[in-house]
Structure formats: structure tokens, C-alpha cells
Amino acid sequence: MILSEEFILKSPYFVRETFINLYGYYLSQKRFNKRFYQLLDELILNLQKNPDQIKAEQFEMLKNTLIKAYQNVPYYRETFDQTGFNPFEFDSEKDLTKLPLLDKPTIRKNFSKLLNTNIPSNKLKLHTTSGSTGEKLKFYQPKELTYTINAAFMYRFYALHGVNPKDKRVTIGGRRFTLKPPYWSYNRFENQLLLSSHHLNHTTGKDYIKKINEFKPVFIQGHPNSILYLANLINKGNARLFVPIKAIFTTGETLIEENRTKIELAFKTGVFQQYGSGESCFSAQETPEKIGYMLNYEHGFVEMIGDGKYKEIVATSFQNEAMPFIRYRVGDLVHPISVEKQKMYPFPYLFDEVLGRTDDILISETGEQILPVAIRMVIKPYLSDNTNYQLVQLTINDFQLNLVDLNKKIVIKDLVKQLKLVLGNNTQIKINYTESLLTDGGKIRNVINKIGI
Fold first, then answer.
1. Would you state the pLDDT for residue 440?
2. Architecture of domain 362-449 in CATH?
3. Whole-model pTM?
């Protein structure tokens, strides 16, 4: 964690709020600018097109992506020439199979050759994925994609559910912004109430719901397990919700149907998932009819490969000219929609289930639940390339931390100290170095509870 973040976490309330709102102003200017509203209008108008128009437009975007990659990116120029692939003569999606799949080791090996040599460095932003498949990845993308374009895609999704930009929203996610009460913050520039998932327990949960009642949000967004915790308090009669909520949007973790039902019962509204790659290759969301994930055809092209019940996602990015990924193995498995269903919108609906992150909830020594996002945010700053973790709870106070860290880059003493702030001072953590971690549906389970809840 960088010094400025540490300073903000420990600052008095008014200092913390000042810094959070300064950052909120910065992000608001990046996201909700003139270009954002222009793009959002265009994306919403696309919903009125017919399927043939959309299919034709998506193919043209795919062909243009291939041509520009060949013209501007050394890696693709070499690859296309070696395979005899001519992007200018590309006339069928099936021809994509002539190209090799792109994976994370290939990206690392050819990092500089994958960059568009014609885009200035001051227009780029370096990103790092969370590494849920066991492999963290660094890549560049245009700053406009990071802030403006991705925000426009997200708010088109929200618009399907009656939500407008800068409507009042509650966010309960993984970002750490405080170490002491109150465990919330108001970002006035985006009309956003931030609730800390790291401090979620029986007492603060009731306080959060009271704060939601006072704030009167239009919608709620965040990690499913955090929202589920609040829903359980409401359903058990430990707290009451008095304000109407238009919709709840979840991301970052897999939402199982049983938990969706509990959340919808508590908040008396629909819960809708969004799914995409951290590399901004594509995005898809659930629409009101809940028949599957609607693909944003302007964002990227998706192939589903494999012979089993679940298919592997392979994506080609349309919006990242700076470092385009073509036929990229995202690392996720999905269940294709098997029959054509009545659709509210003309976009492609390709799958109805995603095998994503399935981490467990841990139990503290005081009996409180510890959400996996809290563990993830503590450990994430200590991870680097070719490192990963798996925290297993064996008893209330006994844990095993499995680490993939062949070069011993992780400072164990500091990491254990930070973990104990979350798990409890009496916690015993055994370190186990390993070359690989157990996977579940192609994903690594980073947090495992072996004692139950």
C-alpha cells in the first residue's frame, strides 16, 4: 500500500472525506464528460437496431480490428504473416480459427511487440488484473477506455433498468478507504455513498441499512456476498429497509441463484449481474427478462470453444487499439444458451451461466463473518508477477496460507501482520509454498472455509 493511501486510511473523518472527494472529482471529470454522454446516447440508440444490422456492424468492427492490428502492432504483423492470414481478405468469422490463441504467457513474452507503436505513451494507462485464474497480467489500454468508454457501457446496462448517470447509488465493494468509524463516505461528485465491506458485521450492517434509509439511493452496486450479508439482516428481522430500490447490480464474484432470491426478497427489487474481462476485451450483462447475458457487441467479439457442457471464453477486443488482444483466452468457462429464447433486445445472448470466482466466507474468533473481498484487498498489494495465494481456514484460529511465490518476493512478516488485523490477533497462520493451487471450474479458489458457517 502506498504512503498516501495509508495516510488517508488513518486520517480523521474530515481529512479522509476531503481526499476521497478530491479523488471523486477527478474520476467524475474523467468519466462523466461530454464524450461520455455522446457515447452513451449512441449506445442506447444501438438497442433499436435489428439483429442483421448488429451482426453486420460487429463483423465490420472485427475486420477493422484485425486490419489495424496488422498495420500497427508488430506481434500481429509477424503472426498473421507466419500463418498466411490476410486481414484485408477476411470475410468469415470462421477464418479466425486460422489464428493462434493468445494467452497470458504469450503476452508476457511479447509485451513490447503487442503495443501499438503509433499511440503516445501519455494516452495510455497501465493495468494489472487480479489474477483469479492464477496469473496476474500487466497490459496497457487507452485512458479513454479506462474511464469514459467503460463507464458508458456500464451506464447503458444501468439504463435498461431505469437508472441514469449520477442517480444516487450505494457502493459496497472491495476498496479500502478507512480504518475507523464511521465506515462510510459520501462522494458528492458522483452522488455515491461508499460502505466499507471490510468492516461489515452484525452491528455495522444494521448501521449501514439505517444509512441507506437516510441516503435514499436509486440503486445499489457491489460484491454479492456483501449485499447478501445486509439482505440476511433484513430477512431475519434485525433491520428494516424503508426506501424503494430500483435495482441491484453485482460484480466481482459469482452470484448463486439461492442468494439472488434472498437479496431480492430483502430489497424487494431485481438483482442483475454484469460480467466481463479485466482486460476490457468484452462485457455482458443480464437484462430484465433474465434469460442470459447480453453481449455488448460494440465492446468485443466472443468465441466459445470446447466440447463439454461448459465452453471456454475466447475474446477479441474492439476498444483497445493501444494493446489489442485477438483470440485471447480469458480463463473463464460459460454455459451456452442452448435454445433461442424471446429476447427484449436484438443483441447477442450467448450464455446464461458463468463459472467465476467461488470464494468462501470466513469466521472470525468473535464469530463475525469475514468476506473474501476483505482478504483479497489485504493480500493484493503484496502480489506481483507469477505469485498467487490461497487462504484456508482450518479452525476458528488456525489458517493455512498457500503461496505460489517461487522467488520469495512476498514479505511474509508484513503480510501476516496485515492479515491478523482482519482475522484476529490470536490467529495462527501456517505458510505453505507450492507450485500450483487447487482450481474449481478453471478458477483458483483463493479463500476456503473448512469449518462451515
1. 56
2. 2-Layer Sandwich (3.30)
3. 0.84
